[in-house]
Design a protein that fits this description.
about 270 residues, alpha/beta, Metallo-beta-lactamase, Chain A, 6-stranded mixed sheet, about 20% helix
Length: about 270
């Protein structure tokens, strides 16, 4: 079993000097084909961007490089896009779900409150969704209430018999149905926290990074909680109590991404 760490959309917000981030996706080799955790931006976001994406991409300093799309990277590894059989979404914001149209045959797993939020947005964060990203009619696999416990967190296995085991871990706050995604590995668990944590603000940082790396610290206290929710204390406790069993990364965590790329011998 191999997990590939992918950057599916570089970010460099023009209004925040020094801030460089990624869109952190995972490509997992399973016994039922490839599985993506989030898709990042998609090829059509660059080739034929919608009105909303024509605004969003420059705002976030996205270089619009097709080589960064998950579809391109899958093909570069020697696979076909049809080999991606499952996609597990932390949530459906444009930088996480833009590539759904590149994988029309994949089953798309997500938490029911997230799909409800995307189809009937109520809050400012929910109005950020881009409906064009699911205009092709994805094969939604919608998951309901949690059925298991995982290190004290409620969780939902996405498919019986799938190896490795993959769990949705509800972490609502950033959006109504936001989830982390936990993947079991031979060394332990990897939890992709989505946007329930961030290395760029002291309130949201899980790993006690140097303050000089936290480019959003100029924002007031409470900013992180208002944007990502209130799960950081629980996630930090998970690191403290089970850091030898669980590794936590977050959706734009370039530091963890760079560490994994170095470990894999990539440039």
């Amino acid at each position: 079993m191999i997990i590939h760490h992918l950057n599916c959309g570089s970010l460099k917000a023009l209004s925040i000097p020094g801030l460089r981030a990624i869109t952190y996706c995972l490509l997992v080799e399973t016994n039922r084909g490839l599985l993506l955790v989030d898709t990042g931006f998609g090829t059509l976001d660059y080739a034929a961007p919608s009105k909303r994406m024509r605004f969003f991409l420059p705002l976030m300093g996205v270089p619009r490089d097709p080589a960064e799309t998950a579809a391109h990277q899958v093909v570069q590894m020697g696979y076909s896009v049809s080999d991606v059989r499952h996609i597990v979404q932390t949530h459906l914001h444009p930088d996480h779900a833009g590539g759904l149209r590149d994988f029309p045959d994949a089953e798309v797993h997500l938490y029911r409150p997230e799909l409800e939020a995307a189809l009937k947005p109520r809050t400012l964060m929910e109005w950020a969704y881009e409906p064009a990203h699911w205009s092709h009619g994805p094969k939604w696999i919608v998951h309901d209430q949690s059925v298991e416990q995982w290190f004290g967190f409620d969780c939902i296995p996405i498919a019986e018999g799938l190896e490795p085991k993959v769990l949705l871990v509800p972490l609502a706050g950033h959006t109504r149905g936001h989830c982390g995604v936990a993947v079991e590995t031979p060394e332990g668990w990897l939890l992709q926290c989505g946007d329930a944590a961030s290395p760029f603000h002291r309130e949201a940082d899980l790993h006690h990074l140097d303050a000089s790396l936290q480019h959003l610290n100029f924002l007031p206290n409470g900013f992180a909680r208002s944007v990502i929710g209130r799960h950081v204390p629980r996630l930090r406790q998970l690191v403290q109590d089970h850091g030898n069993e669980v590794e936590l990364i977050s959706a734009h965590d370039m530091y963890s991404f760079d560490r994994h790329r170095r470990a894999d011998g990539a440039d």
